Amino acid sequence: MGVGYRQLKDVTGLRFKKLLGAGGGDGFSLRPDFRTYAFLGVWESAAQAQTFLDTHPFMQAYYQKASAHRTLHLKPYKSSGLWDGQNPFTPASQQPPSADQAVAILTRASLRWNRLAAFWKAVPAASKALSNAQGVQFYKGIGEWPWIQQATVSIWNQAEAVHQFAYKGHHAKIVKKTRQQQWYAEDLFARFVLLSDTQKIKHS
């Protein structure tokens, strides 16, 4: 992952890309997880994305080295904020998912140096709130740089479960605090319809 960007120059249809590490446990830890990594790509078309996943040397090396991998195909329906000065997930349509559709959430923040201590002090409570949330299937903390550039990906049974978690209860208080105290130099919150979720485990 450290040198992967050199292999991803001029990939057909790839508009935005990030190579991400993960924190220990569920990702919400100061201790890095050196066994878990993520590739994030935004594509002009689903066909171009699939061709890359099936044939590109970068992905083939990734699969060969991995004991397991998971691929999420996502379609954005709502996104606000910026990532490196842009919003890569601007949806073509803001039509919300149906009541029974699974959704994925991506949050990303670049922390201000003078707010690092406050952020990490709040992380255990935020992580506990997420683990106890109704309707969450999966969550993992990921990021570009340990400790200062953080992201979270999560999968939920339906959009209403996300709404209940984000705007009610303890997590809503944390979000309000981040705004009031200006923890983030840049942040983004994006919602997606989960089109597919494929997991593969390599058996020895």
Question: Would you write up a description of this structure?
Answer:
By secondary structure, the chain is of the alpha+beta class. 27% of the residues lie in helices and 40% in strands. It contains five helices and seven strands. A seven-stranded antiparallel sheet has the order 2-1-5-6-4-7-3. Helix 3 (116-131) packs antiparallel against helix 5 (170-181). The longest helix has 16 residues, at 116-131. The chain is globular. The protein starts with 13 loop residues before the first strand and ends with a strand. 19% of the residues are buried.
Secondary structure layout:
Layout (H helix, E strand, L loop, with lengths): L13 E10 L8 E12 L2 H10 L1 H9 L2 E14 L21 E9 L4 H16 L4 E10 L3 E8 L2 H9 L2 H12 L2 E18 L3
Antiparallel strand pairs: 1-2, 1-5, 3-7, 4-6, 4-7, 5-6
Helix pairs in contact: 3-5
Keywords, please?
single chain; 204 residues; alpha+beta
Which term fits the overall shape? globular
Average predicted confidence as pLDDT:
89
Give the biggest beta sheet.
7 strands, antiparallel
> What pattern of helices and strands is seen along the backbone?
EEHHEEHEEHHE
* Share of residues in helices: 25-40%
Euclidean distance between termini CA atoms: 24 Å
Instruction: Supply the helix-strand structural class.
Output: alpha+beta
The percentage of residues in β strands lies in: 35-45%
Major beta sheet, strand line-up: 2-1-5-6-4-7-3
